[in-house]
Amino acid sequence: ISVWPYPATICADGRSRTQITAQVFDYYDNPVGAGVTVTFVTDFGHFLGMGNTYVTTTQEGGYAFATLVSDTQPRTVTVLANTENLRQGYCYAFCIECRQIYIPLILRGR
């Protein structure tokens, strides 16, 4: 299984999101079809509408998707994806401290 986040870096604010994509391959390294169950597990943050585990099935091309919501602490998050036949892969997402920058807007008369 190939697994990757996009974007890989998000704010550690408990609201920012990243899409985790897994592509599942068979024994001969060909993408599987639709309907293969994939379980995503994270050590920090949570999956949108769920907890630290999210179960879904693949679409055509062997792709499965999950939305990870950031943790509130800056840290490296590990996401594991596995299938029923014990194939697995993992990726890292980075929750970083983000600072708000305010830039004043000055409007001049026209």
List the defining traits of the structure above.
110 residues; mainly beta; five-stranded mixed β-sheet; four-stranded antiparallel β-sheet; 9 strands; 48% strand; elongated
How is the secondary structure organized here?
Elements: E1 2-6, E2 9-11, E3 17-23, E4 37-42, E5 46-47, E6 53-57, E7 63-69, E8 75-83, E9 88-96
Describe the fold and architecture.
- There is one protein chain.
- The model has no long low-confidence stretch (mean pLDDT 92).
- The protein is built from no helices and nine strands.
- By secondary structure, it is an all-beta fold.
- The chain is elongated and about 65 Å long.
- The strands form two sheets. The protein has a five-stranded mixed beta sheet with strand order 2-9-8-4-6, with no helix packed on it.
- The protein starts with a strand and ends in a 14-residue tail after the last strand.
- Helices cover 0% and strands 48% of the residues.
- A hairpin with a 4-residue loop joins strand 8 (75-83) and strand 9 (88-96).
Distance between the termini: 59 Å
Classify the oligomer: single chain
Based on CA inertia axes, which overall geometry fits? elongated
Unreliable spans: none
Total helices: the number is 0
Order the strands across the largest sheet as they lie in space.
2-9-8-4-6
Mean pLDDT across all residues, rounded?
92
Helical residue percent? Answer: under 10%
Q: How do the helices and strands follow one another from N- to C-terminus?
A: EEEEEEEEE
Largest sheet: 5 strands, mixed
